Amino acid sequence: MTPAAPAGAASPAPEGNRPTGVTPLSDGWTVPWGTAWLPDGTAALVTERDAARVWRVSPYGRTRKPIGTVPETQATGGEGGLMGIAVDPRWPSHPYVYVMHTSTEGNRIARMTYDGSSLGGYTVLVRGIKKARYHNGGRLAFGPDGHLYATTGDAQDRKLAQDKDSLNGKILRLTRDGGPAPGNPFGTLVYSLGHRNPQGLAFDRRGRLWEAELGDALHDELNLVEPGRNYGWPLCEGPCDEPGMTAPKRTWGVEEASPSGIAVVDGAIYMAALKGARLWRVPLRGKDTVGTPEAYYTGRYGRLRTVTAVPGAAALWLTTSNADDTGGAPDGTDRILGVRLG
């Protein structure tokens, strides 16, 4: 694990809470990929990647029910399928749910409606994101500016990450109707470039955007994303001093991490690790630096996919991703875990 050099002196941020225990909440899942809480905190929506199904799950995981499937979703036998999900922050007055999924033609960002009972409608907002068996990205998150942010992978074609005209290997920023958000650096959907396979995306309480990215054979990354910045792939993997490139704030060896989802709670980033099979806690320090990462539950629950803050509680939801460990058939072995913070 290698820290990036600090950009300047900064006073420490409050340490905040730490994980104090885990409670199994719900089992019988197969690759639960995306989790998004309804703004009123009454339930979370959870996607199952290969089944293309969306579930409504109660706050303590005691009840769940399917609310619909996403049309035209095609699993890839690898990392593609139904991935990220985000709920319009104005729900239920604006009853929209946004999903990112793989189709026969490529990866899409689509909008559906959710009336509290079932999913309906289906409108494709973004096409033209190339797909592959691996490196599809797929995370969605609304920013404090009200716009939707999305991660896309390089679709196993590394040159796309440096191509500003390609939607692959990027962080995208779009309006609720799928157009380029005002102020985007290139006048397109592209917000940042030079990404390999980013699967983690979260905003901190200061409105800064953090991103976690799976590396190739050397380094996984935690990046502080700013508009128009180039994060180096494939010219850099991990620490980077190439002209015009932005170095990560923290790196890990791929055996320690292979990160997917991230969440920010009480001055720390929590990062779910797939190959690393642990939950990382990374303290935020001042303006643009991070502290020493701490690992929790190493090897105890297997591969970890998504971590989400629970509204109004000192807690996280954590999903496992063991059913796809070897790309085998769905077997219902995954779980949703509740992590207490204190």
Describe the structure.
By secondary structure, this protein is mainly beta. It has one domain (17-341): TolB, C-terminal domain (Neuraminidase), CATH 2.120.10. It has no helices and 26 strands. It has strands spanning 2-3, 19-29, 32-37, 44-48, 53-57, 64-69, 82-87, 96-102, 107-114, 119-129, 140-142, 148-151, 170-174, 190-193, 198-203, 209-213, 219-225, 250-253, 259-265, 268-273, 279-285, 289-290, 294-296, 304-309, 315-320, 334-341. The strands form 6 sheets. A 5-stranded antiparallel sheet has the order 1-18-17-16-15, with no helix packed on it. Strands 19, 20, 21, 22 and 23 form a 5-stranded antiparallel sheet that branches. The protein has a 4-stranded antiparallel sheet with strand order 2-26-25-24, with no helix packed on it. It is globular and about 50 Å long. InterPro entries: 6-blade_b-propeller_TolB-like, Glc/Sorbosone_DH, Quinoprot_gluc/sorb_DH_b-prop. This is Glucose/Sorbosone dehydrogenase domain-containing protein.
Radius of gyration: 18 Å
Largest sheet: 5 strands, antiparallel
Which fold name corresponds to the CATH topology? Neuraminidase
Cα end-to-end separation: 26 Å
- In the CATH hierarchy, what is the architecture at level 2? 6 Propeller
* CATH class descriptor name: Mainly Beta
Mean pLDDT over the residues: 94
Strand tally is 26
What share of the residues does DSSP label as strand, in percent? 35-45%
Q: Detail the poorly predicted runs.
A: 1-14
Helix/strand-derived category reads mainly beta
N-to-C SSE series? EEEEEEEEEEEEEEEEEEEEEEEEEE
